[in-house]
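ok, trying the design again with the full structure, not the truncated one.
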């Protein structure tokens, strides 16, 4: 018998309505954090360098980028972050998939 993979575990877990609902509710947060990291690294900046530009602590940048963080950043914070790495924000609304 083969050992189950993470993909197998995830498929099985997402069949449970409560797990699926929670997973879906976190999807936008995960996408945002992933994008923040991507634009910072594309700009060639470390968390320390970005913190210096934004006049904040590295720990604040780390917390902002962390998928495990419980903070919900203000739009103005995300705008400042984007501007510091050479980007601007564009917000799009898409229909919810049922």
């Amino acid at each position: 018998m083969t050992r189950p993979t993470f993909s197998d575990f995830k498929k099985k877990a997402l069949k449970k309505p409560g797990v699926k609902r929670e997973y879906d509710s976190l999807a936008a947060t995960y996408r945002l954090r992933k994008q923040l990291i991507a634009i910072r690294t594309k700009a060639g900046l470390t968390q320390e360098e970005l913190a210096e530009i934004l006049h904040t602590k590295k720990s604040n940048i780390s917390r902002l980028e962390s998928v495990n963080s419980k903070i919900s950043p203000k739009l103005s914070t995300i705008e400042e972050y984007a501007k510091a790495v050479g980007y601007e924000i564009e917000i799009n609304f898409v229909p919810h998939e049922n």
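Keeping the full-length input from now on. The chain has a mean pLDDT of 92.
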